[in-house]
Specification:
The chain has 89 residues and is mainly alpha-helical. It has three helices and no strands. The mean pLDDT is 87.
Length: 89
Amino acid sequence: MTLSAMARFLGDTPLRVFLKLVVISFLVGVVMSAFDWSPFDVLAGIREFFFDIWNMGFSALERFFGYFLLGAAIVVPAFIILRLFSFRR
């Protein structure tokens, strides 16, 4: 028995896929209602998650450059002084 292109794409017959989607949608709706969530809450949570990751990334870069500049304030002048003392004429 050969499956039609639609059934191959969906993974099952269209009617069975439709029934599975109806049942799963109902169950997800019950759970979301129990937690008093809306689709907008879920989308806002996902958006906030990525903003938090974005902000943490820049915070980490800010700390890195802060440490870098703090160390460079000592290392670069010390390097220059050492190079001047070891300079042979």
